């Protein structure tokens, strides 16, 4: 349990936050498929990333960390991967590692069993089992959950797949299975889920043909080793975007934040709420921006609907906190995917924010939040991160504006995506 701090003098300072988790997973995987040495500059180091690296090591890939934090991926290439027998991989807490690597193993036709921690073992895997099975794979699972065994990979045939739900992980399962199996792969994504793999493939010498919401990767692709620089993660920056907005007297600068439009929904929402965020963008396949956030005492409520959700799925817990400070009713709908994350985030956000006095109601697909509420607790109050990193970080930001003592159960879960979260919080508060 950890006593959370208040921020009476606001937050101030500049931060280059942790690197993007989604982009780091993809750089490690694509770097491993390519023969030779791929250099990943400023990768994220976190528990979820370790899950991906450990799995790739079992294929004979070596990772060396250089002094500047660059990871050198040294791979025999996908055609020469080791093929260990009776392979069992522990994917820890990471949905992305599980679903993306299931695609890789199915494409390789390399039998594997994937296990995970208690949280990951409750998360739905039927969404990847169905498309892989339709492509000829044989997969055993416990009622659509881990442990999951791929006993036979996909069978060579051109792939045409229309994403049935707004999940980038499912899109990547099929994309990677097709890429590794060397078959032409056409995917339609009408949900606008994050497109980091599509943006990264050209650097590995793979060209995609994109028409509207459909892209095709031709058959027989051989990836070339390359160099990838990972920008800062907007899902981590989100905590400071909201903290800087709701904590009076704050001024925070965040540098080199990834603002890929399939990820940057939170910037749109905060702008609609009336937040003060200056943005200086550096154009690239993965555009980056320096952001300056200033406290904004008067915020407007917003309506977030299904079409917005994929661009801000992991940020909805912290957006819900911002909404408790807006003048009126915020409605977040179309976000039922939140129920199948590390926790049921519809329930955990609602239960824990209520303990701090928020007026928030859970719906089957989101929240109704009435603001503004003065988050105040009369007696020392214990809130619970439920082992979910995003809930623990959201509650730590909530405590900054809470009058009264707040203690957090499970602060350790920040290691999943943002191991230096509490150090960065100290850094920003100490300078005030
Ligand atoms: O592809 C990715 O890197 C991710 C996709 C999202 O999951 P879904 O695809 O399940 O929505 C997101 O919640 C997760 O943190 C990372
Ligand atoms: C949902 C998340 O990650 P994953 O699905 O990879 O476990 C997250 O980081 O919030």
UniProtKB/TrEMBL annotation:
CDD domains: EPSP_synthase. Phosphoenolpyruvate binds at residues 21, 95, 123, 169, 345, 390. Its EC number is 2.5.1.19. InterPro entries: Enolpyruvate_Tfrase_dom, Enolpyruvate_Tfrase_sf, EPSP_synthase, EPSP_synthase_CS, RNA3'P_cycl/enolpyr_Trfase_a/b. 3-phosphoshikimate binds at residues 21-22, 26, 167, 169, 314, 341. Pathway: Metabolic intermediate biosynthesis; chorismate biosynthesis; chorismate from D-erythrose 4-phosphate and phosphoenolpyruvate: step 6/7. It comes from the Bacteria. Residues 9-425 form the Enolpyruvate transferase domain. GO terms for molecular function: 3-phosphoshikimate 1-carboxyvinyltransferase activity. PROSITE patterns: EPSP_SYNTHASE_1. The keyword Transport does not apply. Monomer. Catalyzes the transfer of the enolpyruvyl moiety of phosphoenolpyruvate (PEP) to the 5-hydroxyl of shikimate-3-phosphate (S3P) to produce enolpyruvyl shikimate-3-phosphate and inorganic phosphate. This is 3-phosphoshikimate 1-carboxyvinyltransferase.
């Amino acid at each position: 349990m950890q006593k959370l701090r208040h921020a009476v003098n606001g937050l101030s300072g500049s931060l280059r936050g942790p690197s993007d988790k989604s982009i780091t997973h993809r750089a490690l995987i694509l770097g491993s498929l390519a023969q030779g040495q791929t250099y990943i500059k400023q990768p994220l180091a976190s528990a979820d990333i370790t899950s991906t690296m450990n799995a790739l090591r079992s294929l004979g890939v070596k990772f060396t960390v250089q002094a500047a934090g660059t990871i050198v991926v040294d791979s025999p290439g996908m055609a020469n991967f080791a093929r260990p027998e009776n392979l069992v991989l522990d994917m820890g807490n990471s949905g992305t590692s599980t679903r993306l690597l299931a695609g890789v193993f199915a494409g390789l036709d390399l039998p594997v069993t994937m296990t995970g921690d208690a949280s990951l073992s409750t998360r739905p895997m039927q969404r990847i089992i169905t498309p892989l099975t339709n492509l000829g794979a044989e997969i055993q699972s416990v009622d659509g959950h881990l442990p999951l065994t791929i006993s036979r990979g996909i069978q060579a045939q051109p792939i045409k797949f229309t994403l049935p739900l707004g999940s980038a992980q499912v899109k990547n399962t099929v994309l990677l299975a097709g890429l590794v199996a060397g078959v032409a792969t056409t995917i339609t994504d009408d949900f606008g889920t994050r497109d980091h793999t599509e943006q990264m493939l050209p650097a590995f010498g793979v060209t995609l043909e994109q028409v509207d919401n459909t892209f095709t990767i031709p058959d027989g692709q051989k990836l070339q080793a390359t160099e990838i620089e990972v920008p800062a993660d907007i899902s981590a920056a989100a905590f400071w975007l909201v903290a800087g907005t709701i904590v009076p007297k704050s001024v925070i600068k965040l540098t080199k934040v990834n603002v890929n439009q399939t990820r940057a929904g939170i910037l749109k929402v905060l702008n609609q709420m009336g937040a003060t965020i200056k943005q200086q963008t550096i154009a690239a396949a993965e555009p980056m921006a320096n952001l300056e956030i200033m406290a904004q005492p008067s915020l407007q409520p917003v309506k977030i609907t299904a079409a917005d959700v994929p661009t801000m799925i992991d940020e909805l817990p912290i957006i819900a906190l911002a909404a408790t400070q807006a003048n009126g009713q915020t409605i977040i709908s179309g976000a039922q995917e939140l129920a199948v994350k590390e926790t049921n985030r519809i329930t955990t956000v609602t239960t824990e924010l209520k303990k701090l006095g928020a007026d928030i109601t859970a719906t089957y697909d989101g929240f109704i939040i009435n603001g503004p509420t003065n988050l105040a607790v009369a007696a020392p109050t214990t809130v619970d991160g439920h082992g979910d990193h995003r809930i623990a970080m959201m509650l730590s930001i909530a405590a900054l504006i809470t009058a009264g003592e707040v203690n957090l159960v499970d602060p350790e879960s920040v290691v999943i995506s943002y191991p230096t979260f509490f150090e960065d919080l100290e850094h920003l508060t100490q300078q005030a």
